[in-house]
Model the fold of this input.
Amino acid sequence: MKNKQVVALLGNPNSGKSSLFNQLTGLRQKIGNFPGVTVDKKVGFCRLSSSMDVEILDLPGTYSIYPNSLDEQVVLEVLANPKNPDYPDLAVVVADASNLKRNMLLFEQISDLGVPAILALNMLDVAEESGISINSGKLSKILGIPVVELNAREGIGIEGLKHTIFNQLQHKKTHINPPAFDKKSENIFDEVNAKFGIGNKYLALQYAAQAQKLMFLGETQQKDLEDIVKKYDFNADKFQSAETIERYRDISSTLNEVIIEEGVKKETITEKIDHILLHKVWGYVIFLSILFLIFQSVFTIAETPMDWIDQGIAFVNDFLKSHLPDNQIVSLLTDGLVAGIGGVLIFIPQIAFLFAFISILEESGYMARVVVLMDKLIRRFGMSGKSVVPLISSMACAVPAIMSARTIGSWKDRLITIMVTPLMSCSARLPIYTILIALVVPNNKVLGFFNMQGVALMGLYLLGFFSALLAGWIMKFMLKSSERSYFIMELPTYKKPRWKQVGFTILEKVKTFVFEAGKVIIAISIILWVLASYGPSDKIEKAESKVLSENPTLEHAKLDSKLASVRLENSYAGHFGKFIEPAIKPLGYDWKIGIALITSFAAREVFVGTVSTIYSIGADAENETTIKERLRNEVNSETGKPTFSVATSFSLLIFYVFAMMCMSTLAVVYRETKGWKWPIIQLIYMSVLAYISAFLVYQFLS
Amino acid sequence: MKIIFILEPKKVILRLFEISLNKIIVQTEKTVADLKIGERGIINNFKDAAMSLKLLEMGCLPDTEVMLDFIAPLGCPVGITVAGYHLSLRKREAATIVLK
Ligand SMILES: Nc1nc2c(ncn2[C@@H]2O[C@H](COP(=O)(O)OP(=O)(O)OP(=O)(O)O)[C@@H](O)[C@H]2O)c(=O)[nH]1
Ligand SMILES: [Mg+2]
Done:
């Protein structure tokens, strides 16, 4: 006996399961207005009464229990195995009421597996708008199980649903109405039942029909099932299509009794919008303009608040330095911590804007249209239109993006998508781009209103995108697969983004950005500060006295800064940097950049923080400057020219566009491809690409 | 093609005959891919068994009405209304749905 009862939320994609899950559990599962947002199961808890807590299970959406992709497979695995710890005691089937007929197919299948069920009619507001009204009382009578009305988006009807769940867990009413089984099916049922102890006819036939997909069975049992299938010459496809047709006939006659549709169909708002957004010419123009708008505003609107933060941090550092005693601990605080954290905080406005735009794209329903617009183009590059979702969402972060590739049915399309997704520039690269672009691209307006820096930023993102296409195109020829792929996708109706939801997403992403990057940065800043302040044996002291004896007449401030840079050079960090300098010199980087490059293997965001720490250690203490100024003032000690010249800066930019510097991405690729082969190939090809392109850019520009 | 022609003219003629016959059959069968924007049709059957399983579960059943909503800018995918909702599919896939 399980100690907690499991209530599973099942239903078609985009019917509002995760919205309901969030309402019931208070958690924040990702929600979006396109099919296939949730790709894995997620557990939460809900208090039904003072004495009863239940486990709520959010699952990926599926149209039937015959899966076509990995996310749908999760549902079959939960429902086909009564021994699965997630096997539900009760299924809440969340149905999109504006499209009830298609949603009922899955409901009927789940019910026939013998799972007690509640039918939750969601999106009644959308149904009403298109003139559909449903008599839920009558439907409940016909089906013999509770039917509840919901608006999961606004949270209407949640208390009633909790009450119904509570009651259903006591009574466990089921609705069993399987298709007619012929003699052959009956025989198969008898054999499967004898071998596997499956008393439910429909489930037993699923074992026969989908043996290869039931991974939990193990090979010998799958083999047994195949023998049964062969013995009776059971045609699984025929069984499935006959079942589907019969069920739909039955559903139609049921729904005829409970649905009242308004006679005349007007063109809906969604159809009107689609005429424009999917227009032959305007479709692409609008899509490109939206992208353009995103990058422009990331640069222009975010600039002012960024400057405030930058100056604020410089002020704090100044204040601390002038009011605290000049000792090692204070230096750790100011040069190490404040400088490093400043390198994170300054990017909050940009991250916020980026996530705001992505979340509006996802919430409005436009994402599915982008998939349609891009399918034909992207198919030439070894992917499917559905790859657009991972590619776009990896502008935020590659980790969830790679997981979202699970909705792509074809193995080859999916693998190529996973392999090229990290080439899309994620938000962790944004700080590096911003700082370096600000250094070398003039803040001018082109054609009156395009901001040059914004254009440069968009250029880097496009570079990432086009190289992802190119890499896909190459992989297309290297991977052989006879598997057929298809693209049959529901287009959701447009919905107004919920501003509260958008706000929460921004807040949450900014929080993760600050805390995740912050944690690493604090650790790295401290380590870096130690490594930069101390050196092997007495090398630092020796170098110091050398400077003193060579420059007896130098004024105080200049001497100080000279001493500081000599100290850094002879510290442990300096030694590391010098050690790898030969390898990165052809790319135009000195040993100081080398240090930052090494630390950014921990996380790309760290680069700016590290640079900021390193240069603030070297800077003269009197006059604390902002991060941008610090980089601009940095001079290469050998050549006497600015370190961040045009050639070096562009070389660094290109390096970061391509370099695979993210442990979490490698880990998720390992998990999704079930082995080290693909993440290692990915690491190698991206590193080589990064090194060579950076090299070419530097050599060309210098 | 040429080489075969020299070697086995009979076979080639037969083959050509087959091809033209196929064309006639294809032309007489109107599919969803042949619809114009805004035009409606009633589903009769499917040409591709494996694809039909997915189409069936999406509500594209024999005897249901479909309407072509849009053709994407590059000619593919296309969008249809079926069973009261919008579905998008590739042209090749639409061509497997035969209309009455
Ligand atoms: N108008 C309206 N919109 C709703 C309702 N419930 C959910 N939505 C919206 O429908 C969209 C899909 O919601 P989700 O909760 O992500 O759907 P899901 O079933 O989890 O989708 P998948 O994870 O893709 O299977 C979101 O944009 C929600 O805001 C509702 O009752 N009315
Ligand atoms: Mg979901």
